[in-house]
Design a protein that fits this description.
The complex is a heterodimer of chains A (314) and B (539). Chain A has a domain at 223-310: Cupredoxins -  blue copper proteins (Immunoglobulin-like, Sandwich). Helices cover 36% and strands 18% of the residues of chain A. Chain A has helices at 12-44, 62-94, 203-214, 223-234, 274-282, 284-287, 300-310, and strands spanning 106-111, 114-118, 124-126, 128-132, 137-143, 148-151, 159-161, 167-171, 177-183, 195-201, 264-265, 270-271. Chain A is elongated, with a radius of gyration of 28 Å. Chain A starts with 11 loop residues before the first helix and ends with a helix. Chain B folds into two domains: 3-508, Cytochrome C Oxidase, Chain A; 509-539, no CATH class. Chain B has helices at 3-7, 12-41, 51-86, 94-116, 141-169, 182-214, 227-244, 247-261, 268-282, 297-309, 311-326, 334-357, 359-365, 369-399, 405-431, 447-478, 516-521, 527-530. The N and C termini of chain B lie far apart (48 Å). The relative contact order of chain B is 0.10. Classes of the chains: A alpha+beta (314), B mainly alpha (539). Chains A and B meet through helix 1, helix 2 and strand 9 of A and helix 3, helix 10, helix 11, helix 12 and helix 13 of B.
Chain lengths: 314, 539
């Protein structure tokens, strides 16, 4: 997976940004070269001979000076005017206007420190957000607590997630693939690990994924997993985490209905393996220092029963 | 000398030096904080600092460098130099002058006292609400931060009023506003900017403290407040503050480049007027810190245009300096080397600033390491380079001794190499998608090696700065005796003894042009003989 935008824009919106960025970089290089050339020219000029009167040259040439200054200023204004036009044009392309009242195709909510995505059919997922490639989606960006920023460098502009203020962006991927995203506004202790992935699927893959995510959680089979399901409610895990099809309906933590289908835990801090799950259950602050999950104080037997239950949530 | 003796000093030269020396001390502290951050980021997944420690240290680094180093050191140079440059014997309000320094120092100490409570502020130097609110920052750090900034803000406003009144009323006979040195012009404009910008910071700090301590709801969206209110207030202060941290540096460069180019400044009037233009524009561009917020494209594009406009007067200045050098004959002292390097480094910082005014580029690069590169090219490559140039230039006036040129050259090259090595790669890291303010990162292509280059270069930079400190200490004892006017300069401070006597001048030279000392030394070729309207000055 390639990070960053400059060399690999993957949507019409980021192609517009990259092309403007290239213009700006070329222009900057040209201006810098001009200033550097002036400096170098003054460094290599032959030094004035000793005793020659100093410091009069400029005072003597007022008219010429005024003319040079006017030319320099006009050129700057014209170049910046051109840049402004390019800017406005690119803005119109990236932030294409939307019909008032258009419903978003996806609602993304920033939490300290993970991302939740909600689909119109009610599917809720965390951190690994599937979209159909080649479709332009309207995404609403919200925050549940502090200000975050939703950023997928290769696919879309940044948008701050501000409490009480809805932000909208167009999100689109030219072709199927995995595109890394991350929070880009400092949001507290674990700002560094607030990653997410946009997974652009073919249309068939996307609809089968959406269908499987819409299923409620599978009923646990086997004694350990059933015990885990009971413990999940008894230990009040359900106060923060939801598992569709059960009494667990909390909204402060990630939805765990299909937690096993996800590749990463803790917004990118670790892969989703049985060991990681066990660490989260027994010592959440070691799994991700500062995160909002309290230590559930589980015995070893309880922890392994819960792990067995979570292991069934495909 | 007893402590009481120090505290009661009101001589503007002592107060100026207090400002400069305390800023130097905080500069070393802020530098150590920067090294801790760079060490933590040297390689992927390091655990030298915990997330909380990292966040506290970067908050303290930013707050220290902005409020305890760059702003006060520029004020300090102003307090030291302005009376000398305009031919005055003292600031207009000497005791207010001393008060401003002690308030500034108290603010700095209060900020650092937060470490003693175990809870330094950790919400960043612009401390966005609601992250800085009680539910998300329950410790006392943000309270210390806000109270410390209130003290510092009071100090800045007092010093600024004093400087502005001094420039307006205490100029020597003949020293019209069209003849004052450009450093005085820029300090004057800067002081007015402080007087208008800092009260806005005070208002936002008071609202934050009301929220935190009195259960008010200014920034709480769930109860009718607005997090955007903080952003608007903070950046209406914050963007002028950016120029408050560079305009006096422009003034220093405008003094140093002409003297070492043996040439009068190219375009005095445009250099002064462009400063006024920058000051006005700086109050109309704050939203460019908020382009990633959903504010609407039309609204945003107005601020984009205003932000781009700032490049016009700034470009005029760059051109004035380059043209002065081009028409002159350079003397490459260490001071001049730093001034020349300033020109190039600041140009890079200015250009990346224009990049952020082109909104879609901002939508991609804001809050990445590209911003970190930009602010350091402006504040370090710009202001700190200018301050090094200023120190080599005015140290002889302040102490009567020259700084060592050999050590100076070594210091210069270490700083140039260390600075560019540290911060140029940050542009690339930003383009590669690295967000700012992350305490660690995973194993991502190129991030590790580029960060390592940055950290190693930062160590070189620190070496250069330690060499500079050595030079200060050694030259103070052993430096060559400078005499009153070691650079064959033209402005009035060089007519005073080195260091200047208590009342600065035994006799003030007649001021009939912008370069009174030139006139004194070259009566047959005096500037005022050439000026068309010598009585009014004129350009």
């Amino acid at each position: 997976m390639v990070w960053g935008l400059l060399f690999h824009p993957q949507s019409p919106e980021t192609e517009a940004i990259a092309s403007l960025l290239a213009d700006v970089l070329v222009l900057s290089a040209a201006v810098f070269s001009l200033v550097a050339a002036l400096v170098v020219a003054s460094l290599v000029r032959p030094r004035r001979a000793r005793g020659e009167p100093e410091g009069r040259r400029i005072l003597d040439a007022k008219a010429a000076r005024a003319r040079i200054e006017a030319i320099w200023t006009c050129v700057t204004v014209i170049v910046l005017g051109g840049l402004f036009l390019l800017t406005v044009r690119a803005m119109a392309k990236i932030d294409a206007p939307l019909e008032p009242g258009t419903a978003p195709d996806l609602v993304v909510t920033g939490h300290q420190w993970w991302w939740e995505a909600q689909y119109p059919n009610g599917v809720v997922t965390t951190g690994e957000i599937h979209i159909p490639a080649g479709h332009r989606l309207l995404v609403r960006i919200d925050s549940a607590d502090v200000i975050h920023d939703f950023w997928v460098p290769q696919l879309a502009r940044k948008m701050d997630a501000v409490p009480g203020l809805d932000g909208y962006i167009w999100l689109e991927a030219n072709k199927p693939g995995r595109y890394q995203g991350m929070c880009s506004e400092f949001c507290g202790a674990q700002h560094a690990w607030m990653h997410f992935v946009i997974i652009a699927d073919s249309e068939a893959d996307f609809s089968s994924w959406l269908k499987s995510q819409a299923q409620p959680a599978t009923q646990p089979s086997g004694s350990a997993a059933s015990e885990g399901a009971r413990l999940f409610l008894e230990k009040k895990c359900g106060d923060c985490h939801a598992i569709a099809g059960t009494a667990a309906k909390g909204g402060n933590g990630p939805d765990l209905t299909h937690v096993l289908s996800r590749e990463f835990l803790g917004a990118g801090i670790a892969r989703n393996t049985p060991e990681t799950v066990a660490l989260w259950l027994t010592n959440p602050q070691a799994a991700k220092p500062g995160n909002r999950m309290p230590d559930p104080h589980l015995s070893d037997a309880e922890a392994s029963a819960l792990a067995a239950y979570l292991g069934t949530l495909k | 000398m007893s402590v009481g003796n120090w505290i009661t000093r009101v001589d503007h030269k002592h107060v100026g030096l207090f400002y400069i020396l305390s800023a130097l001390a905080f500069f070393l502290v802020g530098g150590m904080e920067a090294m801790a951050l760079r060490a933590q980021l040297a390689m992927p997944n390091l655990k030298l600092l915990t997330p909380d420690q990292y966040n506290q240290i970067f908050t303290m680094h930013g707050t220290t460098m902005i409020f305890l180093v760059v702003t006060p050191v520029l004020i300090g140079f102003g307090i030291y130099l302005v009376p000398l440059m305009i031919g005055a014997s003292e600031m207009v309000f000497p005791r207010l002058n001393a008060l401003s320094f002690w308030l500034q120092l108290a603010g700095g100490l209060l900020l650092y006292l937060s470490f003693a409570t175990g809870q330094a502020p950790a919400a960043g130097w612009f401390s966005y609400a609601p992250l800085s609110e009680k539910p998300f920052s329950p410790g006392k750090g943000s309270d210390y931060w806000a109270f410390a900034l209130l003290l510092i803000s009071a100090a800045m406003i007092i010093a600024a009023i004093n400087l502005a009144v001094t420039v307006a009323t205490a100029r020597a006979p003949g020293m019209t506003m069209r003849r004052v040195p450009l450093f005085v012009w820029m300090t004057f404009v800067n002081s007015l900017m402080i007087v208008f910008a800092l009260p806005v910071l005070d208002a936002s700090l008071v609202m934050l403290l009301a929220d935190r301590l009195l259960h008010a709801r200014f920034f709480d969206a769930a109860h009718g407040g607005s997090p955007l209110l903080w952003q608007h207030y903070f950046w209406i202060f914050g963007h002028p503050q950016v120029y408050i941290m560079i305009l006096p540096a422009f003034g220093m460069i405008s003094e140093i480049i002409p003297v070492f180019s043996r040439n009068a400044i190219f375009g005095y009037t445009s250099a002064a007027l462009s400063t006024v233009a920058i000051a006005f524009l700086s109050y109309g561009v704050w939203v460019h810190h908020m382009f990633a917020v959903a504010l609407g494209t039309t609204f945003i594009s107005v601020f984009a245009a205003a932000s781009m406009l700032i490049a016009v007067p700034t470009g005029v200045k760059i051109f004035n300096w380059a043209a002065t050098m081009l028409g002159g004959s350079l003397r490459l002292t260490t001071s001049m080397l730093f001034a020349v390097a300033f020109l190039l480094e600041f140009t890079i910082g200015g250009l990346s600033g224009v990049a952020f005014a082109t909104v879609p580029v901002d939508w991609e690069l804001t809050d990445t390491y590209f911003v970190v590169a930009h602010i350091h090219y402006v504040l370090f490559g710009g202001t700190i380079f200018a301050l090094f140039a200023a120190t080599y230039y005015w140290f002889p006036k302040m102490t009567g001794r020259m700084l060592d040129e050999k050590l100076g050259r070594l210091h210069f090259w270490l700083v140039v190499i260390g600075f560019n090595g540290t911060f140029f790669v940050h542009h690339i890291l930003g383009l590669l998608g690295m967000p700012r303010r992350i305490y660690t990162y995973g194993d991502i292509p190129w991030w590790g090696p580029l960060n390592l280059i940055s950290t190693v270069s930062a160590a070189v930079l620190v070496l250069g700065i330690l060499l500079f400190c050595t030079n200060l200490v050694v030259s103070l004892q052993l430096g060559a005796v400078s005499g009153d006017d070691p650079w064959d300069a033209w402005t009035l401070e060089w007519a005073a003894s080195s260091p200047p006597a208590r009342n600065n001048f035994a006799e003030i030279p007649v001021v009939r042009s912008r370069r009174p000392l030139w006139d004194l030394k070259h009566p047959d070729a005096a500037d005022w003989l050439l000026e068309e309207t010598p009585v009014q000055g004129g350009d």
